[in-house]
Specification:
globular, EF_Hand_1_Ca_BS, calcium, 249 residues, CML21-like
Length: 249
């Protein structure tokens, strides 16, 4: 049986062509996005163009999981304080008051948009992991805060975590369009895997976990929400909704 040797340049060109196909697909999807989604895709695409990604492989980012989980858990007290009726989720009024206490300035309509955008399970309430998504969207979209307040959401450690997760997203987003495609996910995981076949399988699994709306493209919101599972974050003492994910990279 003849052994086939693939030329590295040809392989890269093939991958590049597939990325371009993904770019066309992402451009078609933009017409279906909400206002916040459009802004977020643009923000991540701009970040990809400007930020010098220091991650060499995703494995280096995995080492930060315990620290990231700790920064998420540190916000739980803020969430519990905002949850006035103790039902484990924030309604519009509770979220509005919470953002006011964090000195984040948004109109009622804008807060309603963030509430709707982050309600991943369509329960009409923001659970703890969804609250993390709310704060990330607010921070990464870069809305000014009260005069004299240096921290965008009043939680500097969490903001640093969001920057690290955004860098991981950019690491996957090879064509810098503000989305992560299945091919981009598989390519990045393959780089971290000692076996190409194993890396392909894991890449497909991870993509399916993150593609919450099953449209074939991952937004930062979906990436972050899946990521809260990866680091072991729970909504409350008894996990509800989306299943926890073990991460065998």
């Amino acid at each position: 049986m003849e052994k086939i040797v693939l030329d590295g340049v040809k392989v890269w060109r093939l991958f590049e062509n597939r990325l371009n196909m993904g770019l066309i697909q992402s451009q078609e999807r933009r017409g279906q996005l909400t206002k916040i989604e459009r802004r977020m895709v643009q923000a991540m695409a701009e970040r990809a163009q400007k930020v010098n990604v220091t991650l060499k492989t995703f494995n280096t980012f995995i080492l930060k999981f315990p620290k990231i989980d700790a920064s998420f858990e540190a916000v739980r007290e803020v969430f519990n304080k905002a949850d006035k009726n103790g039902d484990g989720s924030l309604d519009m009024e509770e979220l509005k008051q919470c953002l006011q206490e964090l000195q984040v300035e948004y109109s009622d309509q804008e807060i309603e948009e963030f509430h709707h955008e982050s309600d991943m399970d369509a329960s009409h309430g923001i659970q703890f992991k969804e609250f993390i998504v709310v704060l990330a969207l607010i921070y990464l979209l870069g809305r000014p805060t009260h005069t004299g307040v240096e921290s965008a959401i009043g939680l500097p450690d969490l903001e640093a975590t969001f920057d690290e997760i955004a860098e991981a997203f950019v690491f996957f987003d090879r064509n810098k369009d503000g989305y992560v495609s299945k091919k981009e996910m598989i390519w990045a995981i393959n780089e971290a895997s000692p076996s190409g076949r194993h890396g392909h399988r894991i890449g497909v699994q991870r993509f399916e976990e993150m593609d919450w709306d099953k449209d074939g493209m991952i937004t930062f919101k979906e990436f972050l929400f899946a990521f809260t599972d990866w680091v072991g974050l729970e909504n409350d003492e008894e996990e509800t909704g989306h299943n926890n994910v073990s991460l065998p990279f």
